[in-house]
Each structure stands twice: as C-alpha cells, then as structure tokens.
C-alpha cells in the first residue's frame, strides 16, 4: 500500500495543469466559453516506463519478433533476408553474418575468401593474368608469369595489376594475338583498330565476325551465329539404324524423313523429297504444299468444305458423290470419303436413319439464346426477362393525376 501510494503521489506530481484560458466562441448566435486546459508534463527523465519494468530509450532498443533479424538502425527484417546476397540493412550487416559463399556459374572458378559485394566468382582466364580480382588475391597466387618478348604486345597496366619483384607487372601477350577477335589484353589493346567484333575469352566468336555467343551455345544443333559456324567441327554422336540425320546432326526417326512435316529445326528432313509417304492418320496432297510440294494433312480435314490442300485434292479427289442415288436423301446429298452423305437444311438435323431430317431443338444447345428460348418447327425464338420497377421508386406515381381539358 505504501509503495502504491508513493507512486500515485509521484504521478500526481508529474501531471500539473499550469494555465487555463477562457476563450469566447461564437456559435449560432450565442456566446459560449470553452475552457482550454494546457497541461505540461514534468518528467524526471526522458525514458518511458512500461509495465513489467522494461525500459527502451529509443526505437533501436525494441527487440525484433521471432523469425526476424534486427539491423543496427533498429529495423527488423525477415530471417530469410539474411545472407541472401542482397543488402537489406542500411549498413549491410545482414550479409556480414558469416554468410556462406554463393555458387559460381558453370565454367567459373571461385576465390579463396568470400566478402559481400566483392568479387568471388571469376572466369578461368582471369587466373594468373597479372590482375588481382579476388579480395584475398588468390587468383594471382602460385602463378608462373610469362616473360615478355621483344615483339610482344604490351597490354598496359590495369589499376589492380600485381607487383613482381617490387615493380608493377608488365602485362604482355604474343604478337599472334593481335586482331584474332578475342580480348587477350584486359585493356583491349590487342584488338584496337581491328575489323569485326572482339569477344571475351570465355565466348565463341562467329566466323562472320559480327557476333559473340556464349560457349554453351556452341554445338547445340542450333544456328546461333547465323552463319552456322557455331555448329561446325562438332563431335556429335552418330545416328543409329532407323534414324535420319538432319543437316544440323540431330537424329530423328527415319519414318519422319519426307513425311511432309518439318521435324528437323533446319527443315533438312523435307529437302529434296520427290515422293513422300504420309502416316496412316494423314492424307497426302500431291501438290498441296507451297510451290507445288507434297503435303500431309489430317484426315479429319477431308471433305469439310475448306481447301486445306492448295491443289484442292482434300475437297475434290478424296471426296465423292457416287453413292448419293442409292442413299435416297430427304434433302440433299454431299460428297464424302465414302461416296456421299445426307445433310439437312438449317433448323433441322439428320435422323438416326442417316437419310431423313427432323426438327433441331436449338433450345437444348448452348449459345442460341441468352435467357428464354422457345423451340419451333425448323426454327426458334429468344426472349429476355425485363426487371420490374416497383411503384415506390417513382415518386411521381403517388401524386394525383388530373385530366387535361382541351
């Protein structure tokens, strides 16, 4: 009780009204007085006290929830943002917390030490090139450097070059590297004034000298260069029996050769074909393709009223009406693969005897009407339901109506 009383006395002492003002306010023609009380808080210290005895001097002292990481500036970030190789805290301490190194891309080599935002993965040709790329210098350790010859190309001195015997290294490459299409010097001196494009040492330079591609694109059965030089001198495995070898060395089933479909990406399987054999589910148009070339189409496209073959054989040669006299169609007989087929006018459908016509109930089929549908013999009509407007929604409906006298 004593302690509680002292606290109340202290609290009462901290909060004291120091001034009261009577302010006249004009409201709807009457004068009222509003008492404004200004209160000054007299605090013994700048700290805030919370229940439980916890004291926080500022926001940076507030603990972060479970599953989060607290930055030095007080910001809380998800634990998943720690060591994700991106700076989320202002000072980047979320990436300095003994983070594992990233995985290098295929073909690259790693430095000995990982430091956030510093080079860790480098191409192989950066190793022992007299230029320090790794933060720990391991890319230039245990290296035996080539001694420059009198007719060598001197590359110049990059800002991060190493020192040899106390002197800045003299980086040079053989004269044969001049204008070879590749940047053997990191400074590019060896390719200055040379025709064509200069590629990095981990790229492939196309024979036309117009494009550099990634080395992984070489010998992938695709013409990435445009001149097909990336698919030359490749050690592709041979095709086995029952296969056809495309011009790009890709192997396809032999039955796909000259079947009217391009199965090779370079279309070489349909080149120089004088006669083709279509699969069982296809129909051969002898001159139905571009420039009178043979073409295979699906048999389901035959006799559908559309010319899928440029020579029209899918709607003429393959279709016949020879059996029409014997069918005795009620309406008309059209061509088909079997010599003819009966069909009916709009609004009627073929009966089960495949000869006579009966009424088509359009109301049982989707898409004819939006709301109400009424079927009639040989036709149908649609109707819509209009919303009913209640009388009370029209205020004028309650007013008396007076006749107009003329």
Keywords:
receptor, disordered C terminus, Laminin, lipoprotein, repeat, 2 helices, two-stranded antiparallel sheet, glycoprotein, 4% helix, transmembrane, 406 residues
Determine the number of helices (DSSP H or I, runs of at least 4 residues).
2
Q: Which blocks of ≥5 consecutive residues have pLDDT under 50? A: 1-57, 396-406
Outline, from the CA principal axes? Answer: flat
The amount of beta strand, in percent, is: 15-25%
N- to C-terminal separation?
97 Å
CATH topology of the domain at 323-383: Laminin
If classified by CATH, what would the architecture of the domain at 323-383 be? Ribbon
Question: CATH superfamily of the domain at 323-383, please?
Answer: Laminin
Number of strands: 24
Written account of the structure:
The protein is mainly β. It has helices at residues 2-14, 324-327; strands at residues 15-27, 30-41, 48-49, 55-56, 68-70, 76-78, 109-110, 121-122, 153-154, 163-164, 167-168, 172-173, 203-205, 212-214, 243-245, 251-253, 282-285, 295-298, 332-334, 341-343, 348-350, 357-359, 372-376, 379-383. It has a domain at 323-383: Laminin, CATH 2.10.25. The protein is built from two helices and 24 strands. The longest helix has 13 residues, at 2-14. GO terms for molecular function: calcium ion binding; hormone binding. Disulfide bonds join 64-76, 71-89, 128-143, 179-194, 219-234, 239-251, 246-264, 258-273. One of its GO terms (biological process) is receptor-mediated endocytosis. The chain crosses the membrane at residues 21-41.
Please render the helix and strand layout as text.
Elements: H1 2-14, E1 15-27, E2 30-41, E3 48-49, E4 55-56, E5 68-70, E6 76-78, E7 109-110, E8 121-122, E9 153-154, E10 163-164, E11 167-168, E12 172-173, E13 203-205, E14 212-214, E15 243-245, E16 251-253, E17 282-285, E18 295-298, H2 324-327, E19 332-334, E20 341-343, E21 348-350, E22 357-359, E23 372-376, E24 379-383
Antiparallel strand pairs: 1-2, 3-4, 5-6, 7-8, 9-12, 10-11, 13-14, 15-16, 17-18, 19-20, 21-22, 23-24
